[in-house]
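FIELD: query
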Amino acid sequence: MARNIRLKFNGFISLLAFSSILLFPNISSGSVSHSQSDTLIAKVKSIRGISDVKTLESRHFNQKYTLFIDQPLDHDNPAAGTFRQRVFVMNISQERPTVIVTEGYGAGYVVNPAYREELSRLFNANIIFVEHRFFLTSTPDDKNWKYLTAKNSAYDLHNVRKAFGDLYKGKWIATGISKGGQTALLYTAFFPNDVDITVPYVAPLCRGVEDGRHEPFLSKKAGTPQERALLYEFQREVLTRRAELQPKFDSLCEVKKYKFNIPLEEVYDFSVLEFPFAFWQWGSPVAEVPAAGSTADVIFKYWMKISSPDYFVAESPVTPFFIQAGRELGYYGYDIKPFKGLLKLKKSKGYLNRIFIPDGAEARFDKGLYRKLKRFVATTDKKMMFIYGEFDPWSAVMVNEPKKENIVLLIEPKGSHRARISTLPEEMRKGAVDILNNWLSQ
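FIELD: result
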């Protein structure tokens, strides 16, 4: 992937002619009268299926609430029962655009008074933030994994959109980051008329449990040849110095009380294999990689900073994601060939089931969602802007190069999984904001 700024859409030059001044200038989010606040919370409480509405503090919104909405466990079978899904409402004005954040995981961090999503900040928009089913407080009492499907999550979002549609009648933007971006994409594919614009950040589109495109990306495209060689040599050093490092590794896992589904010596291997993926995903500085021959303490401390074994624990708050990955979202694999003779592992294939997926939750991967989303992006007339980082391993499975001006693909040069509109080079950032302003004005 070229390092120069890449803007993959038609008509960019004409769109840059738009003023960089936002078409939706900021409106103060300061205090509102008690009567206005009372009116809004009364409206929220009156929405069918909503309960436990509580006021939260916010530095950016004049009103912020947390609440729960009743959702069917199975949208195709109401008799299966219901669960309560957590939603946050952050209000600027009922006249402003509304961003629906399609979180792919839990939403605990949104309680923070400082929280504000990027598009809401750029366009002074309201936020409806939806925690994903089966995560944190949105977990059903009966944790039946068969109800954890992309289709059900899309219908969850559709129900939330319907619930708040009469309250916020302006433009709606769906957005999310990583798995949340993937969720924004699939939500739009299932319900294209629910939102006016969709902005998925660093959203993967995988075609298999071990997709197969991440490994060559890491060996040929992430960073420079010299940087890739440096990481490879670091991995080899960790493996060749196992006698010094395995005791430190085992001790850390014991102190932290980590529990695994595989032997510790295999967790050691997987932590080494994971190293370059984790390194490039989060944009770690190459200058910090320890020099060859550094002390065992230096090597171990840095290795744990980048690729800690806590990622491989048997059960964690992100276990529901691994179940989804194994069934229809897809994931990545590891190339063990360069480390022949240094690993205790016999093979890495099938590791997702072995390491992450609880007994009874295994299922064969279904490519149906991948085909649906790939086809949707290729044929839709919906306005969509995808943001990726050039060196992020998830960019190996980005959406196809767009062929229509309603699909915009922006790739941050040398960027990571932290790529956002605000991290883009100035010309690209300005172009992105102009395009979104133009779409909002239509």
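FIELD: remark
Confidence is low (pLDDT under 50) at residues 1-31.
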